[in-house]
Write a structure and sequence with these properties.
Length: 513
Amino acid sequence: MAQSEDLLKKLVSHAKEYGFVFPSSEIYDGLSATYDYGPFGVELKNNIKSYWYEAMTRLNENIVGLDSAIFMHPTTWKASGHVDAFNDPLIDNKDSKKRYRADVLIEDHIEKIKGKINKEVTKAQKRFGHSFDKKQFVSTNPRVLKYTDQIKGIESRLKEGLEANDLEAIRDLIIDLQIVDPVSGSRNWTDVRQFNLMFQTEMGAVSGEAGKVYLRPETAQGIFVNYLNVQKTTRHKLPFGIAQIGKAFRNEIIARQFIFRMREFEQMEMQFFVKPGSELEWYEHWKEKRMNWHKALGFGDEFYRFHDHLKPAHYANAATDIEFQFPMGFKELEGIHSRTDYDLNAHEEFSGRKLRYYDPVDEESYIPYVVETSIGLDRMFLAVLAASYHEEELEDGSSRVVLRIPPFLAPIKVAVLPLLRKDGLPEKAMEIMDRLKFDFNCHYEEKDSIGKRYRRMDALGTPYCITIDHESLEDNMVTIRDRDSMEQSRIAIGEIERILIEKTQLSKALRMI
């Protein structure tokens, strides 16, 4: 997959044309950073949810599900720190009138330096061939060492500024690095300011402070306030986890890059409750488990990397991101955090309720520590779309766009296509549809030539097409076509279910994690 803004534009266009993602309220010229998932987008999204939820709950006997409310008591967000500390450092360019996250501008600058290192490595690889030792090269080459020192210096200053909440120091770093506005190319920057990201609304008929509530900025707090309810009703002992998929809302000023950063989005989060002192061991455990989950999709190890936080959130003693190589470069896909006992301690203090776990082995009560895995469903959707998108030149001189979506995630598992719209072929095709629809999401189509229908199914990511021809009426055989290889073979109608189960079942993917 080529990494470029061009690819992102192609994905946006493809997603709309083929019914994956539409701009929200488009007939009214849209609403910034909000999107609607179309017929095939909904299917892909639901399949991603199933892959995550089943991997969490079915493969781990000590993890259970929860669906907590979007609206929570407003004191929840005071206790969690969101009212006082859920801010982004923002900076404006006076010439372009564009607003940016100051830390992201600096991180993008660091990525450009890393790009220079990669260019040096690539040139050296070409020069030395098979004898090239990358590890030795990056540790001894003067130019690479200079770039590495630059990165370390920038990261150190950024970390100090963020930890001290020194907004002037962050602006000074932007000025010193001569970072320019991507739009205007100027360095005419304002001061850096903090902006709270929570949406505020009112509950009930009477306006005023008493009815003030927030749209939840994360799903985790719904898990924390319910952890004892879950523990007592499931009778789980530590360690145990609670998994939840749900909507969250953040008033992102810099919402951009299609569905990568939106104001309304879905999270797939799991909070794992452990005995204090064991949290870092479990943190490493979940780092490995979550990376395995991603790599089981088969896109290639080169799409993923860990990125440790320079400044962990106020609640964490360790934090890392699993970054994915999106069209716009490596960006956060999933966060793994050791949240300590910060949240439960705060909720115990603010609520006045005991949130302690009684350990029957040690015969003591304590507040558990928590290890969190949190992945953005919309970002995961974009990752699957980006890694699956391919433009191919074929041997006959034609070309095709194909989404090589893992079959168990594909919106449509099989397309049933009568060769012609006559001679009893549609009726035979519908018989097959009626057999398959109870186990697979099927699609029936009879319009256009069979070649055009194949191309459309390729563009939708459909792994298999079943074609019914005149011979099918006589021998009860059909042609099955593979999306990726485009190979076609004749199989008995009675074999279709077995083949599709073998090729498209979620359980096959779960066994690979």
